[in-house]
Amino acid sequence: MEILGERKFVEIPGERRHELPPLLVRAKAVQDLSTVMSLAGEIIGSEDLLTPQAVDEAVTAADAFERRRMDLALNLVERYFAFLNHWQWGDGIIEWIRQCETTFDSTAVLRGLLRPDVWPHAGRSSFVLLLGDKGVHPEGVDLEKAVGTRLTFRQPPPISCFSDQFLLLLNSSVAESAYQTWLHMVPDPISSLPPERFNFQIYAM
Fold first, then answer.
1. Strand, coil or helix: what is 195?
2. Which of 14, 31, 37, 91 has a 20 to 30 A CA-CA distance from 193?
């Protein structure tokens, strides 16, 4: 076991660089923008987020109300698409981890790393750490939040399933809490994989 700072890295015999399966991030089909906007408008109406009295008196009340309703709907849709993007990355990462475990199990040098005290089923966060160590930082996506989102939702729900509070305030904390709970299902310290010993490709599908 090699210790660098606060991180502990497993020791892999030899000097060979091991090829891991590619990480595939699939873009899921979503409802068209007009449909999602319409559903976001329904959320705003059902949650009573706006009232006609909350408008600028310098502008016609109806016009100002509609403008604010549209702005809020756009905000909800933007946050929903960000949620979907995180879910898609999380889904790809979870599937990639499963494939990596198969690769480890079929490789004699790596098979010994799957001891229960190093790698219980819930302790696959070492693969998420490996992604960060290899410089995988997709724009607008936090890998831990992505995995937490996928751990929370087996399938991405339509926007109509969410409250405005979830989309505006709770989404990030729920995903982070899910990931941290999953992470700490393994006794410390969690052993990391040495990034210089692994190669893999990333494909956006």
1. helix
2. 91
Range scoring the smallest mean pLDDT among 88-97, 120-129, 139-148, 168-177: 120-129
Beta strands per DSSP E along the chain: 2-4, 7-9, 18-19, 23-25, 191-192, 198-199, 202-204
Q: What is the per-residue DSSP string for 19-50?
A: EPPPEEEPPPP---HHHHHHHHHHHHHHTT--
Instruction: Write down the domain spans for the chain.
Output: 2-30+78-204
pTM over the 0.85 mark: no
In DSSP terms, 24 is beta-bridged to: 203
Range of lowest pLDDT (68-72, 132-136, 139-143): 68-72
Q: CA geometry: angle at 70 spanning 68 and 74, to 5°? A: 115
